[in-house]
Amino acid sequence: ERRKEILYEMLNHADVVLDMPFYFYWKELMDVFPTAKVIFFAREENQWYNSFMEQARVATQRFYSVPDRLHWLFNWLFMPSVAKMLKVRKKFIPLQLGETPKYFRNWSWKFYKYNEHLVRRKYRQNNADILQNCPKDRLLVLDSINAGFKPICEFLNLPLPANCEWPHCNVAGGRNVIDDLWYDNEAAPLKILAYG
To answer: Do residues 182 and 190 touch, judged by C-beta distance below 8 A?
Structure first.
């Protein structure tokens, strides 16, 4: 029950949540927010895996430019809020990847090699959980990421936005979303979160 109280305190002013860690708590979120709905899209597994591993590679290179112990010490001394965020994030990793990495970057400067079988299995399990257990009247399953606003607006009983194109970013070979969230400008959300 405390988990539900925390979710309510964190999100009672939010309209939308997505990505990790929220999709691990979709059931609790639906209990806490009885009018909440789930909009679900699953990429083809190989496409998802390749994209996910590229995202993990870029994020690990950005966040772990030195071995873990030095990284942790630097953050603990100079950026304690980042140290706390990464400590919490590490607790969610097994829910996403099926294992807890022994390290992100070791003393030999090598990155941890994730077990592909476990990562893929966790992807299938997380998807199956939503598809099998989410109440059907509160679930919209998109057939395509480019479905447009119409099915979403109909599902949420909202008007279609006027003069607004369907957004799409982070196209393969294009920008990485990590740059937008962390590095590119002073108003980047994670930069504000970390540095105030």
So the answer is: yes
